Task: inverse folding
C-alpha cells in the first residue's frame, strides 16, 4: 500500500540551528515525492519536488530509494520557516492524486 | 493570475442533509483534485477530475461524489451527512494532474 510517514508531529529548534524534517514512504514502484508547506493563514503550497533537485528557501531534500526516505533539510533555520510541512507521494504517471503524510509542525524560536 | 477559489468558505449542516461544494481552478488548468483534511486522518485524497472525467478516486464511500464542467469548474457533493464528515475540504488544480497542484483556501464543513 502507498503510505507516507512523518514521525514527528512537532519539531522545535532555535534560529540558526539545522533542521531535518523526516519523511519515509512505502511504494513498490518509482514514486514522485514532494514537500508542501502551509504558513499560518496561508494556503498549502508546493515547496519542492524531488525531480527538480533544487533548493527552495534554503531547503533541500534528497530521495533515498534504499531507505525509502525523502527528508527535508535546511542548514540554518529562520523564524519565517515556522509552518506545517507535509511530505507527499504520487505513484507515477500524470495523475493528480497525492498521498500525504500527517505533517510536521516546525517551530523556530528566536 | 487568480488563484483557486472555493465556495462557500464555511458551511454548517446537520446530520442527514446533503451539501455541494464548488471549486474554480486557475484559468487553463484542466485537472481538479479534492482532498479532505481532518485532525485525525490528515489530508486524504477524494477524487480527481480531468476534462470532465473522473480519473482517480480515493477510498471514500459512495456518499462522496463529484463532477467537472466544461469550463473545468468542479463540484463535490456529500449526501446523508455524518458527524465524521466535518472537515476542511480542499481542492487543487493543475494543468494536467501530473504538474504542480495549486491549492484553494478550502471549505470548512461542520456537521451538527
Result:
Amino acid at each position: 500500500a502507498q503510505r507516507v510517514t512523518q514521525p514527528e508531529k512537532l519539531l522545535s529548534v532555535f534560529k540558526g540551528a539545522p533542521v531535518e524534517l523526516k519523511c519515509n514512504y512505502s511504494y513498490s514502484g518509482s514514486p514522485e515525492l514532494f514537500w508542501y508547506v502551509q504558513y499560518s493563514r496561508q494556503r498549502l503550497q508546493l515547496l519542492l519536488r524531488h525531480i527538480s533537485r533544487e533548493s527552495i528557501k534554503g531547503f533541500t531534500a534528497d530521495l533515498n530509494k534504499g531507505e525509502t526516505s525523502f527528508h527535508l533539510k535546511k542548514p540554518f533555520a529562520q523564524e519565517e520557516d515556522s509552518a506545517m510541512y507535509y511530505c507527499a507521494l504520487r505513484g507515477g504517471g500524470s495523475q493528480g492524486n497525492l498521498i500525504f503524510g500527517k505533517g510536521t509542525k516546525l517551530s523556530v524560536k528566536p | 493570475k487568480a488563484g483557486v477559489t472555493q465556495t462557500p468558505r464555511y458551511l454548517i449542516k446537520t446530520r442527514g442533509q446533503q451539501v455541494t461544494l464548488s471549486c474554480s481552478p486557475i484559468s487553463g488548468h484542466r485537472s481538479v483534485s479534492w482532498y479532505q483534511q481532518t485532525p485525525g486522518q490528515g489530508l486524504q485524497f477524494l477524487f480527481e477530475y480531468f476534462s470532465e472525467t473522473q480519473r482517480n478516486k480515493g477510498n471514500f464511500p459512495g456518499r462522496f461524489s463529484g463532477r467537472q464542467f466544461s469550463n473545468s469548474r468542479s463540484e463535490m457533493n456529500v449526501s446523508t451527512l455524518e458527524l465524521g464528515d466535518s472537515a476542511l475540504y480542499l481542492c487543487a488544480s493543475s494543468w494536467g494532474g501530473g504538474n504542480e497542484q495549486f491549492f484553494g483556501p478550502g471549505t470548512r464543513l461542520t456537521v451538527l
About this structure: Chain B has a mean pLDDT of 95. The two ends of chain B are 37 Å apart (CA to CA). The CA atoms of residues 94 and 101 of chain B lie 5 Å apart.
